[in-house]
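Homework help board

Subject: predicted structure for assignment chain

Our instructor gave us this sequence and asked us to write out the predicted structure in token form, then describe one feature. I got the tokens but I'm not sure how to describe them. Can anyone check?
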Amino acid sequence: MVGWTTVPVKREVVLNQGVVVCHIELDEAGLGEVSGYIFMDGNPVKDARVYLMVHYQYKHGKSDHNGFYTFTEVPSGETEVTVTCYSDGNRTLFELENQPESLAVIGAGYIALELAQAYHRFGTKVKLIHRSERVLSTQTSDISDELTKHLSDEGIEIHLNTKVKKISRTDENTILITAEENGKEVQFRVSHILIAAGIDANTANLGLEILGVNLDKAGSVIVNEKQETNIGHVYAIGDCTNTPSFVYTAAAEGKTAALNAIMNKDATMDYQGLPWVVFTDPQVAGAGIDEKEAIKEGIPYETSTVYLKDVPRSIAARDTRGFIKLIRNTETDELLGIRVVAPEGGELVMQASLAIKYGIKVEEIANSLHPYLTLSEGVKLASITFKKDIKELSCCAV
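My token output:
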């Protein structure tokens, strides 16, 4: 089992912007004093504009916008710049030299949940604080409820319908969070805090308004399937755009944009059946659309759910947490989507993704040969369940 002391630690963060290097030595908490130095050619400088990728309030500088900071003063006789930060963010959370005694995670999206469980398993007392009624609130309630049950059973303290009102430090080792939970004021005391409530596209100060590049309400660059903006020769990729925010989609978008911009190709992105995974335990994974999206698109649908307690592989592995759910078009029998809560559930969604992309019928999946005692057999069982009760089947799901 991986323990805190076996994890390598970075002692410093070095960030670059042009020829300016900002060296910040981090403190142990997400809330506290952080000291650093700004150098150019080995000499301290002032009016150095750097991008720190975090939200800071600080003594000797001012924020331009969303992470850009201009340090306007180098104190006489010294090069130290004092910074007060409210959250280091997940980029520096794993650089702490000492394990946090307790951690409040604000948010309940995939990053918040993954980090909350990781630190809980290190032995940190974790409180998950979320303003909505459910974790992973973009998913249907069965997904959220199933994951919440397992995280709670594991010992993670989850507070839903809880809005943070104030964050302050009571002493060197304690952060006080004042919040409203279900209409009542509550307080939480922790040693560390992580704000994982989402990110915004950092598109300000790029001069996009001068070019006339269109942005959506969230500030993301609007692109088409060729990664083109509304300005024909301007392309955008990755998290700054209105496309899915995954590292593998960003890489593909970069290739698409390069082929079109440099080689004058006609390459396009195709997100049909896009697979995704939340790396909690059990994992949450999916591909295609769910019931809510089918209703929104006016597609006739029905669902089939197989619980892992009825999947031979899960029974043999003695880990029956979760379920496999398929969504199909009732008129065409085409697979519309898959949602999974299961240990290593991410390994199941690629076959469903390909079935969605290439229009494979659910009946074909039900009749295909899946090796017995594999988790992928659960997808076959879920396909069969549209028409049969799998509890009445013999061995090997036939």
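Reply (TA_rk): Your tokens look well-formed. For the description, you could write something like this. Residues 7-42, 47-91 have pLDDT under 50 and may be disordered. That's the kind of observation they're looking for.
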